[in-house]
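Q: what does this look like with zinc ion bound?
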Amino acid sequence: MSETPHLTFDPDQAGMSKGHLVVPKGADSEPLPLPVLSFNKGEGPRLLITAGCHGNELEGPIVARRILDWLPRLQECGRVILVPVLNPPALKAWSRNSPGDGLNLNRVFPGRGDGSISERIADAVSRVLLPMVDTVFDLHSFGPRWEFAPASTTHPIADADLMSKTLRMSEAFKLPVTLVWEGPDTRGMFDTLAHSQGKIFVCLELGGGAVGTDNLAVAETGIRNALIALGIVRGKAEYPTFRQQKSSRTLKTFSSDQLKSPERGIFEPRCSVFDEVKQGDLIGILHPLDPCSSMPIDIRARTTSIVCGVKSGVPVDVNDELALLARPLHS
Ligand SMILES: [Zn+2]
């Protein structure tokens, strides 16, 4: 007989409380307890902050812990539920996907109670935590293989009113980039589920490459800004400093601008985040694995755009994304 997912504590008690969201056992594992913290100051916005969905994106779990240092002191109203690590097995394996079932947790929402471990985590979050809130911030990063500007992102949403509220919320982080992301396939994403229920959902991509102190500071300031905008904490929002600049731009990606690898090889980046490029500018060079039998391939920008992310010097496969380019949304 399968148990139902549940919290081991009452998140309605005043102040900070903590315990676990129990993901029931299944055919592939014992019950999995996910640590959950609740900060309750009565009436007001109801927010869920999740991190560690992908196990090789550690900015989110680190920033989630840093929030603990000031949230209890600065909270004025409302409720914040914090899940520092959504996918502990993936984090332990330092892997994007869950090691047990090989699934990407952010493609299996709303999950299945009788499914594999990733599906059961998604089911527990969808059934227990999501109904308790109106707004979700999900903390990701581009992982160790990318250079990426810290960004608050959303996919285009069909409901115009929800889209405009979501974009306003995304811009309130004042991160270097606010990105409207034309994703080719959003099925099974946590974002898509929350949006379908009329909730504001912002996906944070808190940089990429090595986890460094600069990006973590940018991320923490951004989250504080968003909590100030919601009225949950007091304080004054400020632009975080990123590469000596205090600025923010709102951009949109177009699938037609994106650059993928034509074959296997080693990608050498020739541009950096925030570079403004014109059609034909060199983005990078793909070096075939066997330099004796084929020539390097120039990877060039398709249109005038801004570099949001570029793959680090790493081996790539056919069709791997090499760069993420975007254009100003309000122009
Ligand atoms: Zn991610």
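Helices lie at 59-74, 88-93, 117-129, 160-171, 190-196, 213-230. The chain has six helices and 19 strands.
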